[in-house]
């Protein structure tokens, strides 16, 4: 199907699931700051004023879990008095021995990971999730600016494709928490003028574009008092908005030895470089691992028929320029750094400051790139 509408959603940092991701990744960052070899899988669940922090942590770091959680909640905008419960133990010795084997970092579990990229946007992300995230971020800024808005919120963007290309935006949905005294007219004015208009390109909007701003009406009760939250329940928001496939495990809360996270980042890195170098318009990478093994057990590259060179040539380029061994992925992307709080909202991909979003110089020149260079030289000469 070449003519269709595809929809993706995003949420703000005040959403209960994202509260949990933010706390979990802030805990991970604190552990890595003190001990970069920390093995962490500490998750969070929140409901009303109860915050439950639980999981495994093998680290030399001295972590004040309660203080980190309270700081995160205050940064988001929640000032309630929360009761924090801890249940944390060390990583299983069997898993520890499987990960650190023969002085090499190996996969901490079996699993499948996907990476995806396309040339629909400047970030090489699918347009629906790209614009949904941008709207969610703009909404969070408006929420901080206007006292009558609260920190919880959601966005949704439906993009119409014609002949497989982005044609227009069909529908935009924005819901924001607000104070009881706020009027719907106030809310709609702020959302339209400070969230939607500055964020969405004019050429994607037309008279037929539909807008739903707080379509349920009142949204006074939000955050953990409106719904429970748990780490890693927003993996579609975290990745490609449903346009690209997702693996079997979540991303947030996990240290770099966990291939669910590191493998997904590296797969995105490879897919983005394939598209950014003009080798294909779309690319999806699947990689899989077995626990205790340093090398992947399978690697699949799919360009969905959009390749400008053969799939075999792309495979050769990937094998020459990229190394999916666990330790190399960590080293090449500098994943021991405490940067994971930056991923906890508005997606793990498409952000220039993250190392897996870099475009590297490839060692192999393809015939396609050679012809591109010749064309450029010809244009400059004439």
Task: Tell me what the structure shows.
It is a single chain. The chain has helices at 16-34, 65-76, 93-99, 127-145, 184-199, 235-238, 259-276, 311-321, 326-332, 367-381, and strands at 4-11, 39-47, 50-58, 83-89, 100-101, 104-105, 111-118, 149-162, 165-178, 210-213, 229-230, 282-289, 298-302. With 382 residues, the protein is an alpha+beta fold. The protein folds into 3 domains: 4-11 and 126-223, 2-Layer Sandwich (GMP Synthetase, Chain A, domain 3); 16-103, GMP Synthetase, Chain A, domain 3 (2-Layer Sandwich), CATH 3.30.300.10; 111-119 and 238-249 and 256-373, 2-Layer Sandwich (GMP Synthetase, Chain A, domain 3). The protein has a 4-stranded mixed β-sheet with strand order 1-8-9-10. Strand 2 (39-47) and strand 3 (50-58) form a beta hairpin. Helix 1 crosses helix 2 and helix 4 (127-145) crosses helix 5 (184-199). The longest helix is centred in the first third of the chain and has 19 residues, at 16-34. It is flat and about 65 Å long. The chain starts with a strand and ends with a helix. Mean pLDDT is 93; it is low at 374-382.
């Amino acid at each position: 199907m070449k003519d269709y509408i595809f929809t993706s959603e995003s949420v703000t940092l005040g959403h209960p699931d994202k509260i949990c991701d933010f706390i979990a990744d802030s805990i991970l960052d604190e552990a890595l700051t003190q001990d970069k070899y920390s093995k962490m899988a500490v998750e969070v669940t929140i409901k009303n004023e109860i915050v439950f922090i639980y999981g495994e942590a093998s680290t030399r770091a001295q972590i004040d879990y309660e203080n980190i959680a309270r700081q995160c909640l205050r940064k988001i905008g929640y000032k309630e008095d929360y009761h924090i419960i801890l249940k944390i133990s060390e990583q299983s010795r069997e898993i520890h021995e499987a990960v650190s084997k023969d002085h090499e970092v190996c996969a901490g579990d079996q699993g499948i990971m996907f990476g995806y990229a396309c040339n629909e946007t400047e970030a090489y992300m699918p347009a629906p999730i790209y614009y949904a995230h941008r709207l969610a971020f703009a909404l969070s800024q408006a929420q901080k600016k206007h006292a009558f808005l609260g920190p919880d919120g959601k966005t949704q963007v439906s993009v119409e494709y014609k002949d497989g290309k982005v044609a227009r935006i069909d529908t935009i949905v924005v819901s924001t928490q607000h104070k009881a005294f706020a009027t719907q007219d106030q809310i709609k004015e702020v959302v339209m003028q400070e969230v939607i208009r500055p964020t969405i390109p004019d050429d994607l909007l037309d008279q037929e574009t539909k807008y739903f701003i707080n379509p349920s009406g009142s949204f006074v009760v939000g955050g953990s008092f409106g719904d429970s939250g748990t780490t890693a329940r927003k993996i579609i928001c975290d990745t490609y908005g449903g346009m690209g496939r997702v693996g079997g495990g979540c991303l947030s809360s996990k240290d770099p030895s966990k291939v669910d996270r590191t493998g997904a980042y590296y797969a995105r890195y490879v897919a983005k470089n394939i598209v950014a170098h003009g080798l294909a318009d779309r690319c999806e990478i699947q990689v899989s691992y077995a626990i205790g093994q340093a090398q992947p057990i399978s690697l699949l590259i799919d360009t969905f028929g959009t390749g400008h060179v053969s799939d075999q040539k792309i495979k050769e380029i990937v094998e020459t320029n990229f190394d999916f061994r666990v330790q190399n992925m960590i080293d090449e992307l500098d994943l021991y750094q405490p940067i994971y709080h930056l991923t906890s909202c508005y997606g793990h991909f498409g952000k220039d400051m993250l190392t897996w979003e870099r475009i590297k110089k490839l060692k192999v020149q393809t015939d396609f790139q050679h012809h591109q260079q010749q064309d450029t030289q010809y244009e400059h000469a004439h």
